[in-house]
Amino acid sequence: MTSPHDKTAPVVDAAHGLGERPSVPAARTGQPLPLPLPLPQPQPTAPPELDYNGRKHRRAMDNASLAEMARRIPRALAQTARLAWSVDRRMAITILVCQLLSGLGTAVMLTAVAEALPLLTTHDPRAGLAQAWPALAVAVVALAAGSGTWILADWATRRLNPKIASTADLALVDLHMRAELSAYDTPGFTDRSQAAEIGAMRAVDLADDAKTLTNGFVQLVSAATVLTSLHPLLLGVLLLSVVPRGLGGVVAARIDYRVHDRTISARNVRGMMRWWLTTAELADELRANTMRGYLHFWYRTMCDRVEGRELEGARPYLWVTLLAASLAGLFTLGMWASLAALVLAGTMTTAIAGTAIVASQTAGRALNSIVRYGAVMFHHGLYLSDYFDFIAEVGSMTASRGSARPRTPKQIRFEAAGFTYAGKDTPALHPVSLTFSRGEVVALVGENGAGKSTLIRMLTGLTLPTEGAVYWDDTDLATADAEAVWQHVGLVPQKNGHWPLAARENITLGQPHSHEDAPVWDAAGRVGMADHLRELPDGLDTLLARSVWGGQELSGGQWQRLACARAMYRRPAVLVLDEPTSEMDARGEHQIFRELHTMAPDRITVVVTHRLDNVRMADRVIVLDQGRIREEGTFDSLVQTEGSLLAELYALAQDR
Ligand SMILES: Nc1ncnc2c1ncn2[C@@H]1O[C@H](COP(=O)(O)OP(=O)(O)OP(=O)(O)O)[C@@H](O)[C@H]1O
């Protein structure tokens, strides 16, 4: 495949040409055109500037003053500490203790150096060394202990990081799976979900960054305390030397992150497109419909956009870091000059001045960590707050309705039950009153958008009606425990999962699975898949995912058969199939409908289908039209009724 960065790749396909060479950003101009230009045609439009969920944070970063950062960073640290505490208290305590010990180590080391230096600066170095060695030994031990505690803290962080990351991720995934379906319909849900996902992904570095940042503070405080105790003036001198470095670091970090945020939407969209361009699923369509030229141009434009913005950031970054380093150099020079002046004036000994220089080096390193990791934590904090906001939002939208646990229903009743999707003015289903009885096979028919899927979501308790009520026998689904309702449901949805699991799990998924394979083979046999599954390299153990090494792929129709097998394996009291045979061959379709009939006596069966020949086998047909029940009766009676919608649709189907 041609890499998006392959400079020799043709810009468009000449054979069918997109026309002129697409306009590409300046970063790529000047390349030789590899193919002759065909006649001018309209240029392909460049991908639009999409603003992703980064927008919110870009504004936050733009507005980030020192005060704002100082306000947010402690919150991010507190959130990190809360997460760490919740996943592994021992490791959290280990890190805390190590931080304090490492600060203590620095203080002891600096004090010992201050003690040793005057002894070493006598006229007789040998005698000085003999006197100074205990203090020097203390300094070395303190230094070693400081390093030891740092290594221990590092180990504890490494144990904590993956736990924090997987806990955050699990919480998010679990919430998605437990949320009411209506949560997905709230405006901006996907954006917020993605921002929260970024928060969960960043959680992997949280403990590490928080540790480095807090260690910076501890070191700085230790150095400052020792310096103040040596000479009160030294604290001011230290601040003079570190403040310009700190300010420069903050400005540089802001430039860095602004560049990062300005490219976030392009990188996100490019990442998504990359999947589309490289997946086998779309490889046929991409080639046969000669989409490569435009898609290549599109992808390259995105690469250029990212590249261009990153290059734009390089120059200001250089100037700011140069300025900060020069100022820091000047102030350090100033600090040395002040120390020299103090020594010359006799208000400070040379030894203390030497200690001040050592301490200022320690403080400088600590400040670098604070600035660097402060900016990182600030940025983490933005996404972390998205994560916690999303958890709170979706947590309040989980399917916790009531405690009633309905038994296998003999009847399902719609009592003036209707449904309007959030943000819509017209109901997808106007209030209807209907009854579905055990032993009956009901077919739902209607044109696209008539409300069939909405009706079956209400029937199975996936969504609650926004008007009226749905009863399973005497239980109003609004008062029932959703999981208890779904235990009686077997659903073949329009879009079913091609689960990257073994064939066996693809059939037993969601069921308490016995060690027996007989029921699995029985379900596979009912949908005509038993022979095919037997021929797979590892039978029921075969992984059904071509993208995974050793995995096998099924055809579209075979996947649908497997989804039907999954629903039949459950032997549910309420069996609902939404266009279960749209991709199946005639034999598969016939077999599924024959099985539905065989299984019908023990359950309520509802089938949505556009294949009207199959509707014959239903005991009752409900025809929906624009969210209303238009007709109801047996297939034969409806087809023979003058002006019936079913008769019209059936005639159209025959006329193909
Ligand atoms: N999640 C949703 N949010 C908003 N509107 C929706 C949603 N799902 C469906 N609708 C709208 O509700 C109406 C009924 O949709 P529904 O999916 O129930 O139709 P359908 O009869 O199953 O159609 P099809 O035969 O195409 O599957 C349509 O106008 C559709 O646009």
Describe the structure.
With 656 residues, this protein is α/β, with parallel strands linked by helices. The protein folds into 2 domains: 55-395, ABC transporter type 1, transmembrane domain (ABC transporter transmembrane region fold), CATH 1.20.1560; 411-654, 3-Layer(aba) Sandwich (Rossmann fold). It is elongated. It has helices spanning 54-62, 66-87, 89-120, 125-178, 181-185, 189-230, 233-262, 264-278, 283-288, 292-344, 350-395, 452-459, 482-486, 503-508, 518-526, 530-535, 556-569, 586-599, 635-640, 645-654; strands spanning 411-419, 429-437, 441-446, 467-472, 475-476, 489-492, 574-578, 604-608, 620-625, 628-633. Helix 1 (54-62) packs antiparallel against helix 7, helix 2 (66-87) crosses helix 6 (189-230) and helix 6 (189-230) packs antiparallel against helix 11. The strands form 2 sheets. Strands 6-7-8-3-9-10 form a 6-stranded mixed β-sheet, with helices on both faces. A 4-stranded antiparallel β-sheet has the order 2-1-4-5, covered by helices on one side. Residues 1-30 have low confidence and may be disordered. The chain is built from 20 helices and 10 strands. It is 60% helix and 9% strand. Bound molecules: adenosine-5'-triphosphate. Adenosine-5'-triphosphate (ATP) binds next to helix 12. Keywords: ATP-binding, Nucleotide-binding. This is ABC transporter ATP-binding protein.
Measured by DSSP, the beta-strand proportion falls in: 5-15%
Give the strand order, joined by hyphens, for the main sheet: 6-7-8-3-9-10
Following the backbone from N to C, one meets helices and strands in this order, namely: HHHHHHHHHHHEEEHEEHEHHHHEHEEEHH
Distinct helical segment count: 20
CATH hierarchy, class of the largest domain: Mainly Alpha
* Hetero groups: adenosine-5'-triphosphate
Write down the overall mean pLDDT: 82
What class, by secondary structure content?
alpha/beta
Name the CATH superfamily assignment of the largest domain: ABC transporter type 1, transmembrane domain
Give the terminus-to-terminus CA distance. 41 Å
In the CATH hierarchy, the third-tier topology of the largest domain is known as ABC transporter transmembrane region fold
Label the CATH architecture of the largest domain. Answer: Up-down Bundle
- Catalogue the unreliable spans: 1-30
Nearest-angstrom radius of gyration? 35 Å
